[in-house]
Design brief:
alpha/beta; four-stranded antiparallel sheet; 10 strands; 31% helix; binds adenosine-5'-diphosphate; binds magnesium ion
């Protein structure tokens, strides 16, 4: 589903170059659930943004669902991204004074063609994350866990093959964390590819494979032996 080869990323600021990613190669299969771990500042968000085509690498190749993204112009790239990928972030990034329903509709408003069944679809996604009784609440009236579930519904509105989540539980209590992890597991069982960045081992252990990033390199990639209930759902 996602294939990267020798990805490097160097930031240059005030003529000082900082290499952040130092040659990362990685294949993520369709339907896989992968966690990326590592301490703060090791380049996890930088890698996620490159995987999601939100940022471009300094070097290296990226293939998304068989398409080499290098040859695409910005319009083609954002079209591909909108169709294939749903993003979830630690900070939710909802419009505060906007209802849950309208937050979920937002990606469709920016789409080329506003679907006739947009509202129906948005409501269905909100129901699927357990928010049927919160649709008309403003984002600012929701708890952190509810806000993150609205953000997940927004990420799902275009029915993406891939969910990329950067520290999705970083601002949540343990109950809300479990709710989010249950949703991710279900989305994965439905066949979606999930990539979660986290520094929390307990969160990573819901994935099938755990990658460890250090100083801009993958130093470890292991199948998750502690995975429970992987075959008996
Ligand atoms: N836009 C940017 N410009 C310059 N440096 C950046 C930028 N984004 C990230 N960095 C630097 O890259 C390093 C890795 O950042 P990041 O990918 O956010 O790490 P992580 O998500 O693992 O905490 C940090 O040292 C950070 O300061
Ligand atoms: Mg980060």
């Amino acid at each position: 589903m996602i294939k990267i080869k020798n990805i490097k990323k160097t930031y240059t600021k005030a003529s000082v170059s900082t290499p952040v990613l130092r040659g990362i190669s990685l294949s993520i299969q369709r339907g896989e659930y992968v966690a990326i771990m590592g301490t703060s500042g090791t380049g996890k968000s930088t890698l996620m943004n490159i995987l999601g085509c939100l940022d471009k690498p300094t070097n290296g190749q990226l293939e998304l669902d068989g398409v080499d993204v290098h040859g695409l112009d910005d319009d083609a790239l954002s079209a591909l991204r909108n169709k294939k990928i749903g993003f979830v972030f630690q900070q939710f990034f909802l419009l505060e004074r906007t209802t849950a329903l309208d937050n979920v509709l937002l990606p469709l408003i920016y789409a080329e063609k506003y679907p006739v069944d947009a509202v129906k679809r948005a409501k269905k996604t909100l129901v699927s994350v357990g928010l049927e009784d919160r649709m008309e609440y403003l984002a600012s009236e929701l708890s952190g866990g509810e806000q993150q579930r609205v953000a997940i519904a927004r990420a799902l509105i275009n029915d993406p093959d891939v969910i990329l989540a950067d520290e999705p539980t970083g601002n949540l209590d343990s109950k809300s964390t479990n709710e989010v992890l249950e949703i991710f597991s279900r989305l994965n069982q439905e066949g979606r590819t999930i990539v979660v960045v986290t520094h929390d081992r307990a969160v990573a252990e819901h994935a099938q494979r755990i990658l460890e990033l250090k100083d801009g390199q993958i130093i470890n990639s292991v199948a998750n032996s502690k995975l429970k209930n992987s075959s008996d759902h």
